[in-house]
Design brief:
Elements (H helix, E strand, L loop, with lengths): L3 E5 L33 E5 L6 E6 L4 E7 L9 E5 L4 E4 L3 E11 L4 E10 L5 E10 L2 E9 L4 E5 L9 E3 L5 E4 L4 E10 L5 E10 L20 E3 L3 E6 L11 E7 L8 E5 L8 E2 L5 E8 L5 E7 L7 E5 L7 E6 L10 E2 L1 E6 L8 E11 L1
């Protein structure tokens, strides 16, 4: 089970300037004036999207233009000339600033006034942690509103872990040294002090590949699926006897009326599995127990193309575990050729009759 816990740091987007506060960069700025030529009041309009943008609008009777010094550095880019009735927008980092506005009236008289400006960013909201990958590899795709500073991702498998920094819209990928249960932590950054964090419990499985015994911890044996009406699932061994006393087995069931070609498929491709190559042996074996004798078990290797070598072997007896051998040595499979899944089908010659086949210990050998 995955558990998502979210903690939000509380910081408001604040503005300190005279006695007036206005939200939203697109709101209409009121004209604050007094009765003397060349004097004026100033209004800050701070954006609410964590961009740090602040619109500055000098106003006043008889005002010709103003020089705005933003107060966050030096140089030509840190001041601007603003004509009467106009505004200038500047991007600030979170912090406290002193903005100086020099008003120039129609007679050329200059009056300089300073104003305090406080820019504080909001904590991100709606943090979500998307996951993908397979085997020992996990990819995290975080999303959040107002995460202008991006994200920090901790995969939770080492002490004193250094976070991976991820920009908005980005991902972080990590390969674990071993399978197990881990807690991933994601911190959404506002660009200032406010943050939002969330944790996600994940299970990292071993890559699936031969041999398959359905017993190894942290291995997802239920990957893949079925077609044509076949049923498939890993269950407790209902017949711990003779050749097989293991705890878990695979159950294949071809219900009455299922298609003749019904079957199951098990992926072994990356990133969640280990492909089959004939270099490791052309003979495959498995323990099989069937409810009906004389049926055939069809075992097929696939690579996503039309090349699908297969061997069908009769199940000689019912209600006893027996070892079946599938020999692919005559299939002209090139050395190094990789198969990314295998398919199993019961009795391709007819529709389902309720056959049940239990399978265990799938191996590859010479």
């Amino acid at each position: 089970m995955r558990t998502l816990k979210i903690t939000t740091g509380l910081l408001a987007l604040a503005l300190v300037a005279t006695a007036c506060e206005v939200e939203g960069i697109n709101e209409q700025v009121p004209d604050l004036t007094d009765q003397q030529s060349g004097t004026y009041d100033k209004l800050f309009d701070v954006s609410t999207d964590n961009s740090g943008q602040v619109r500055i609008t000098p106003t006043g009777n008889g005002l010709a233009r103003s020089i705005v010094e933003f107060g966050d550095g030096s140089g030509a880019s840190n001041s601007a000339v603003v004509n009467a009735g106009q505004s200038v927008t500047h991007t600030y980092a979170e912090g406290e600033y002193t903005v100086t506005i020099t008003a120039i009236d129609l007679a050329g008289k200059e009056t300089a006034t300073t104003y305090p400006l406080s820019v504080k960013l909001k904590a991100p909201t709606d943090l979500k942690i998307g996951t993908s990958g397979g085997g020992l590899t996990l990819t995290i795709a975080p999303e959040a509103l107002l995460a202008k500073g991006g994200f920090q991702v901790f995969f939770g498998d080492v002490a004193n872990e250094v976070a991976i920094t991820v920009p908005e819209g980005g991902t972080a990928t990590h390969t674990y040294a071993e399978a197990g249960d881990y807690t991933v932590t994601v911190i959404a950054l506002s660009g200032g002090a406010a943050v939002t964090s969330a944790t996600l419990d994940v299970t990292i499985n071993n890559p699936l590949g031969l041999p398959i015994d359905f017993e190894t911890p942290y291995t997802n044996y239920n990957v893949g699926g079925t077609f044509g009406g076949m049923g498939m699932g890993v269950i407790d061994n209902p017949f711990t006897q003779d050749l097989n006393v293991s705890n878990k087995v695979l159950k294949l069931e071809k219900p009455v009326g299922a298609e003749s070609w019904a079957g199951s498929w098990t992926p072994l491709g990356e990133p969640g599995g280990i492909p089959i190559t004939i270099d490791n042996g052309s003979v495959f074996t498995m323990l099989v127990k069937s409810t009906a004798a004389g049926k055939t078990l069809h075992f097929q290797l696939e690579d996503g193309s039309d090349f699908k070598p297969a061997v069908a072997v009769p199940i000689p007896a019912s209600n006893n575990w027996q070892l079946l051998t599938f020999d692919f040595s005559g299939q002209d499979i090139p050395a190094g050729y990789k198969f990314t899944q295998f398919v199993m089908q019961i009795n391709l010659s007819g529709a389902g009759e309720g056959e049940v086949v239990y399978i265990d210990e799938i191996t590859q050998t010479n």
